[in-house]
TrEMBL record:
The keyword Membrane applies. It is a multi-pass membrane protein. One of its GO terms (molecular function) is carbohydrate:proton symporter activity. One of its GO terms (cellular component) is membrane. InterPro entries: MFS_dom, MFS_sugar_transport-like, MFS_Sugar_Transporters, MFS_trans_sf, Sugar/inositol_transpt, Sugar_transporter_CS. The keyword Transmembrane helix applies. This is Major facilitator superfamily (MFS) profile domain-containing protein. The chain crosses the membrane at residues 41-60, 67-87, 184-206, 213-233, 261-286.
Amino acid sequence: MTLILFGRVVEGIGVGCSSFSCPIYASEIAPTKLRGMLSGFMQMTVVSGLFIANIVNLLLKNHKLGWRISNGLILIAPIAIMIGIFFCPETPRWLFKNKGRESAEKSLKRIRGTKDVTGELDAIADAMEDEGNQVSIKELFTTKVMLKRLGIGMGMHILQQATGINPIFTFGGIIYESVLGQGIVALLVLSGANLLSTIPALFLFDRLGRRNLLIYGGLAMVVGHLVAATVFVTGCSQVDKIINGTNVTEEVVNCETSSGILMLVFTAIFVGCFAISWGPIAWIYAAEIFPLNVRASAVSLTTGSNWFMVVYVY
């Protein structure tokens, strides 16, 4: 158990680093018209992993070595990342700032697949001139404009986790095992809704705009949560037992099958609307609102607020 916990700490460090570096990397190499889709693709990989994990868990739930095989299979992803990262070019913006125009031009030609990148290089140069020198973390908190943007970025991440999306996937199996007797299947349904809803989201970020998706997606999430909670309160009850003359309430839930299915449907609606709005957009938005001279520090803070909220919710 000590080794498992130590491994989880190391794994957590890796996840934390990648969760702030991936959106930055995507936002800096993507062309303007595809920036939302490519920045949001990180969310697509996350939900795909969740879906595949639930399929594996369903297939291995009765296997005597199930949890060992499941933990072994997850090595495929980090090994692929370790190999693949060596084939990824550095971002032109970073190269322009740290190694000059020539290095940035080589990288941009490789990324765009064309030799005509003069216009985009000029735009990068103009943007960097406007942004000025690197801003310290102290200046990030003392500059009014940056502090406002930081508040928006951190607020979005905090609210994203306050929706309760992680507890749904963490405890959803236990809840629906009590409600329907099919906890793993219910998780597969929810992760499937998560995956299928993220696909259209990749194309809607740039067409409908981030703000519209946040507003209407948030309203739909409220409906999903509210209906699922109402059905649970009205259609389900806890089991009471009398032991030695004492009335004891057990952690066992009695639900009509129709109520359980209705709960699952509206929870899936909530998850689907989250996947199309607050799930990916919080990451995209934070990576886009900060200038290059402060982006890394600012996005690391917004990402930290996300993981802090994950811990707080649990």
